[in-house]
Design goal:
The complex is a heterodimer of chains A (about 300) and B (about 260). In chain A, about 40% of the residues are buried. In chain A, strand 1 and strand 2 form a beta hairpin. The longest helix of chain A has about 35 residues. In chain A, helix 2 crosses helix 14, helix 4 runs antiparallel to helix 11 and helix 9 runs antiparallel to helix 10. Chain A has about 300 residues and is an all-alpha fold. Chain B has a single domain, classed as MetI-like (MetI-like fold). Chain B has twelve helices and no strands. The longest helix of chain B is centred in the N-terminal third of the chain and has 34 residues. Chain B is globular. In chain B, about 40% of the residues are buried. Classes of the chains: A mainly alpha (about 300), B mainly alpha (about 260).
Amino acid sequence: MSIINSVQKLSLGKVLRENPTAQGLLLISPTTIYLLIFTIIPMILVAILSLMIRGMYGNVVYQINLANYVRLIDPLYVRILLYSLGVGLTTTVLTILIGYPLAYFIAHTPIRERSLYLFLILVPFWTNFIIRIYAWIMILRSEGFLNQLLMNIGLIEAPLNILYTPTAVLIGMVYEFLPFMVLPLYTSLEKIESAQLEAAADLGAPPWKAFLRVTLPLSLPGMIAGTILVFIPAMGMFVVPDLMGGAKTILIGNVIRNQFLVSRDWPFGAAASILLLIMTLIFTLYYTRKAGFSEELLI
Amino acid sequence: MREKKPSLWLRLVSLLIYAYIYIPIIILIVFSFNTQKLNVRWEGFTLHWYEVLFNDANIGLATRNTLLIAITSTIAATIIGTMAALALQRYRFPGYTLIESALYIPVIIPEVVMGISLLAFFAFIQFSLGLLTITLSHISFNIPFVVLVVRARLHGFDKSIEEAAKDLGANEIITFWRVTLPTILPGVLSGALLAFTLSLDDYVITYFTAGPGSTTLPLRVFSMVRFTVTPEVNALSTIWIFTVFIMMLINQLLTRSNT
């Protein structure tokens, strides 16, 4: 037995030393195995689960059918889905509007100062995201700082109800996702050569035209990468609506969470997850094909 | 263009955006020292809430759990991820493109979907939820990020120094420990730091894979701020923000020493 073992060991060692393919496979195998067990198999499980039905006691009945997907066509869920899409898109547009000037500013400061400005964007956003939501709860609640400020300067007489409304959800989402837009945009803007803009100027283009015809198109890969990084998590987000939206704002993420942990209808929750997944995949594939980028996703 | 300073209005707009980013954080920190419990207006300076925080047994337990999960998952993900980064950057093997794209799955899919898929998986294999399931889940979302960061650093790696080591008679293992690892170490540490931060920060996946007694800080903070505002959370946030600030400073220094 031991002889066989040592012979195998010898040949394995020899194979490894002389065969780069075997070395590569050995190095990648822990990742392959881990991804397979803890990402791929769970996903396949959810896909199968979405074809089952919920039993009497919240258990899963193994009976293949499409009932859960049919239920998703119900106007109630279609409305939630469209609303989630709307929230995701609005968040994305707002982060572009706020993030673009900031990224442009950083890309045009002297190189020495840039890392400081980038650092200043990253610090608050590496802090826990529940803490960031909490900061906005302190500001927006009826006895919060915003209402006090507005009342003190006499702009309003009674406190505004902002917290626990869809507006509060948007404020929270934009604050959460802003750096995911700024960083890829910065990466794109930073690469634009001054020569290209000088050429535009030499050819008689006014600055705004040079911006529209040169800067904006060249920053598109960054904007698309940012859109993917903002839109997808915003679509599936359930924590911000939970803490800032009250009972009024329900997104698809809340539906999925509720099916799994409250109503215990796992098959229906799985179907909603698969739908969300398909939507995000279509979105990602469509946009990554439209513009070639890779560096921008590496924030 | 690069030499030209940003225009005045652009600087003004950027200043406003930085104010928008920092005002909530500053309010959070300032009001951790407020004597008033309801935290509506400033009354006076106190360290009382820090005392409350340090005597809170639930917070203590949650901190211990959070650090345990973050440290374990960081070490595991860094080792596995660095190996994968080396494999993808240096070797060609069957299934290369497949694995390369599969690595993007945890980065691209919505967190809630990843959370429920892990919950369904652990339920299916009848594995009871707790610290172990949280840690295993954190490793799975951390590996891709470590791979991305380490690969980015390996990109500029000069292979000739490895060949020099081998010419001088070093074998594969000695070359790795003496030449390759020290050179890519800043990248590896950077990846580890990202993994650590992501693990500390995670709410969604932890939420779905946690069991009784395995509450982490984000879960605890969530339940504390669900219906009310309490200065104790401000105190915790302040400590958190400064910890992150110091960790990021270290990361900046590492990045600088690498380039």
